[in-house]
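Hi all, posting the design record for the shared folder.

TITLE: backbone redesign
STEP: 1 of 1
STRUCTURE INPUT:
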């Protein structure tokens, strides 16, 4: 069995508090948008209406049945469902039509967010 680090990653995902970045091995940064999601509150399960730049344009301009969320606050994952929907939006947009086979992508996010002494 191959080691985790023996294979070069196809993508790298930087899930930051302000921006989500997707980097392809030979192309560099292919997706760099704000870490924002806009959801519809109506219905059984909230549906994703917009993400990234489109959701940023909706901040403070939404009606009562729409809600703009940040999956991370101060470097800490606050809403796993929003994070999942944002990744479902970002990765296909970054890959475009070149979605052949499985992708190997390490994901990074802040590991420690405590007080410094």
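Okay, here is what came back for every position:
SEQUENCE:
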């Amino acid at each position: 069995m191959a080691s985790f680090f023996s294979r070069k990653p196809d993508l790298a995902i930087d899930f930051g508090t302000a921006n989500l970045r997707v980097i392809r091995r030979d192309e560099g940064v292919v997706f760099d948008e704000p870490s924002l999601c806009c959801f519809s509150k109506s219905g059984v399960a909230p549906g994703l209406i917009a993400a990234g730049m489109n959701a940023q344009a909706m901040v403070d301009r939404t009606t009562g049945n729409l809600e703009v969320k940040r999956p991370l606050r101060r470097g800490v994952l606050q809403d796993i469902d929003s994070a999942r929907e944002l990744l479902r939006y970002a990765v296909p947009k970054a890959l475009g039509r070149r979605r052949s086979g499985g992708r190997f992508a390490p994901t990074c996010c802040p590991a420690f967010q405590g007080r410094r002494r």
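COMMENT: DSSP finds two helices and nine strands in the chain.
Let me know if anyone wants the other runs.
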